Structures are given as structure tokens and as C-alpha cells.
Amino acid sequence: MYESGENYLEAILILEQENVIVRSIDVAHKLSVSKPSVSRAMGLLRQDGYIEMADNGPIFLTEKGRELAVKIYHRHCILTEFLEKVSKVPHQQAEENACRIEHILDEDVFQGIQKFMKENLS
Q1: pTM beyond 0.70
Q2: Contact at 8 Å (CB) between 94 and 80?
Q3: pLDDT digit string (tens) for 78-93?
Q4: Run of H or E including 61
């Protein structure tokens, strides 16, 4: 999965949690990208089995898509909290940085951060 695809899945999940019927335009606004960019990404995500959608209709995560979106969003939340607490930076700055690193962090490094958080920052 490519980073931008992960961002799209995460955005769909967050919009769903906000009780929004997710449409391409909602995703475009959430990610500050163009509607054509969303259309292309949705086509790829649908082709790979991560979403289902009718033409110009609501977007739904498949089981496969939801599983990956939840994993990505969990990493995002843990990393945001970690950066806030350890670096003492404002929430927005921590969130922006977490968004950039959540996609490239090795799983064992992330697990180490989670363990550190549980042992030292709870």
C-alpha cells in the first residue's frame, strides 16, 4: 500500500466516525486535494479491494480496507500522543508530524514506541 492510499483510507475512516456519509467530495475536503485526485485514488482502492462505491455514490470500506484504516489511524493516534508528550510540541504540530511518519515507521519501531508509552507515559 502506498502512503497516499493509506491517507485516503484513514480519511474515510475518520469521516465515517464523524457520522458522515462519505462521498468523494468529503474526502477531497478532508485531505485538501482535488476531486480528480480523489477519483483516481478511489478507483485504485476499489480495484485493490479496499473500498466499495457506486458511481458518484457513497464510499464504504471493505473489511480489508477497514482493517488497514484502523491500523493506520491507531498508529497516527499513538504517534501524535508520543510526539506531544515527549517533544512537548502543540497538538497540531504533533499530529502533522505523526501523519508524515506513520507510513514509514517499521513495525518493530512502532511497537517499541507503544511499549515506551505504556511503561513511561501512562
Answers
A1: yes
A2: yes
A3: 999 999 999 999 999 9
A4: strand 59-61
